[in-house]
Amino acid sequence: MRLLVTNDDGIESSFLHLLVRALADAGQEVFVVAPRHEQSWVGAGKSRARPVHSERTDAGLGCPTWIVDGTPSDCVNIAVAHLLPEATPLPVEGVVSGINVGLNASLGFVLASGTLAGAWEGALHGLPGIAFSQDVTDEVYERLKASGGTVDGPLRATLEASARHAARLAPQLLAATAPSAFVVHNVNFPLPCTAETPLRRTVPARLLVPGLFSPQADDGTHRLIFKVGEDLSPPEPLTDRAALAAGWISHTILDYTKLGQF
Asked: What is the CATH number of domain 2-203+235-260?
């Protein structure tokens, strides 16, 4: 398949690079259009109030690659309309977003995620979309930030296994999704993840996530404080958070056509 790959962690993310290499190794034709800087938790926002810059680059990925100084939604929108080779009816057959640094599980995270937004922007163009995210501990997350995103040791083994799962799942799930279906696949990998880690169908967990910002400081500012939230999900069906806690790969189908149904 011809696939557009984006993310919200930026063009330099090791998680993105391992995903792209796994997709290419699996025989997919890949185009990468990713943000210049991290765009986590921007949701489906688009850069309405300023011009957005794009440029062709060589990021060492072995495929056509562009950097966009904007959001994941900007990346996909500009890519499909202006950057990718012209083809009929569309230049690619699907949009793959990720692998995100950290989970994107539960309603609160799904709706805020720039990673999910990249896949959703594909759906707005009539393309099937899939988002991949890798669960990490707080300790691992802080170590990644401190090291500039260096991936080694057990984390690298997990991420390589997750990327291989993603390379297998992406063409299967995208090919099974009808054009203009307004469907996005949300896949979360547990920590650790191996070649034998099973896949489970899930629904988004129902989490309350209040009070994400610190009290006002002397300079008048508030700072984000990450919280997992309070899970109010019923025991059944299996949620994305419960699957990850059990060590399983979570696969949630987000069908946006159901939002208007009574």
From this structure: 3.40.1210.10
